[in-house]
Amino acid sequence: MEARIALLPGDGIGPEVMSAAVRILKMVAEHRGHKLHFEEYLIGGCSIDTFGVALTEEALNACKKADAVLLGAVGGPKWDNPAASVRPEQGLLMLRKELGVYANLRPVRVHPALVHASPLKPQQLQGVDMIVVRELTGGLYFGKPRLREKTPQGERAIDTLEYYDFEVERVVDLAFRLAATRRKMVTSVDKANVLESSRLWRQVAQRVGERYPQVSLSHMLVDTASMRLISSPASFDVIVTENMFGDILTDEASVLAGSMGMLPSASLGNSNLGLYEPIHGSAPDIAGKDIANPVGMILSVAMMLRYSLKLEEEASLIEKAVDQVISSQQLTADLGGSLTTRQMADVVLEYISKT
Ligand SMILES: NC(=O)c1ccc[n+]([C@@H]2O[C@H](COP(=O)([O-])OP(=O)(O)OC[C@H]3O[C@@H](n4cnc5c(N)ncnc54)[C@H](O)[C@@H]3O)[C@@H](O)[C@H]2O)c1
Hints:
Number of domains: 2
CATH class of the largest domain: Alpha Beta
Order of helices and strands: EHEHHEHEHEEEHEHEHEHEEHHH
Bound molecules: nicotinamide-adenine-dinucleotide
CATH architecture of the largest domain: 3-Layer(aba) Sandwich
Radius of gyration: 20 Å
Strand order of the largest sheet: 2-1-3-12-11-4-5-10-8-9
Helix content: 40-55%
Shape: globular
Number of strands: 12
Low-confidence stretches: none
Mean pLDDT: 96
Structural class: alpha/beta
CATH topology of the largest domain: Isopropylmalate Dehydrogenase
Distance between the termini: 21 Å
């Protein structure tokens, strides 16, 4: 098959993990006779430095025309001024919105060899295998009005948490379709005891659930969910939730996997075009040192092969290679190992070349 992939390495460790993952992607494509065309663009702080905006029109249009977009990470202390009118994450938010990728899938599995890397007790981590589906283009991060103003009572700020029923329906439906291929359990997470938007969310989730009698649906308040993620993480199969709740819960869930560097994500909409990125940020504290863990980015490439290019075998090949490498305790520094980013990619490549 032939496909166009847009690469947005971004800032900090973004380019380091991207280069590791793209080496693996190129090798798998070559092995299996696929023709991939790569185009690289700036996003985030590096784009602000060069063009004055976090994502150019040209880069955005190229992403829209591609079959899939791979993204590293954006941001860093250089662009952290909260009062600045141009900020790195604007590029990311604009990209998600413009591509219409309303569902962010974040699988969380605990590799048996990494049980020691998590602060949780080993028995709590047994059997952890969940996907968090985070709504990505609505909710608190996009609602209007959003403003800051001086008033006679003092300075005030407003953010808005807004959802239309159709926005909830499409993301919950995707969660049910996923659950139908897994352990057939959906947990819809909200704050329905306080928020009107959550009461709508819950009603719509209930309605969607009726279309999937083979999948069980439970509703859970976000505060309870944050506790249960730590006390009984293996009880979850598919979690679906609002944008900010999902943002927070998935960072919490990353602790289960042993490191932020382990987790991939896929952002999907109604077409095959998807946006694939690790869940971590630009990690300025370790950038430029060749020590970042590239596994989250490599597994994001596997998700891209599965969801956008429909190459399930190739996706599994990469996932198995990563599994095998971790089983043999070949790890980067965040997991107590001594491999560099490049060496981690080398050992994954070596495993793939032998299969
Ligand atoms: N999607 C994104 O691009 C994204 C997401 C989150 C944060 N950010 C931005 O990244 C910058 C840093 O944010 P942060 O420090 O809160 O979060 P972060 O995810 O960049 O880092 C948190 C901690 O995890 C470690 N870490 C992260 N990824 C790692 C990897 N692959 N290997 C080894 N260790 C890893 C870092 O060294 C750091 O100690 C900020 O500017 C923030 O706005 C971007």
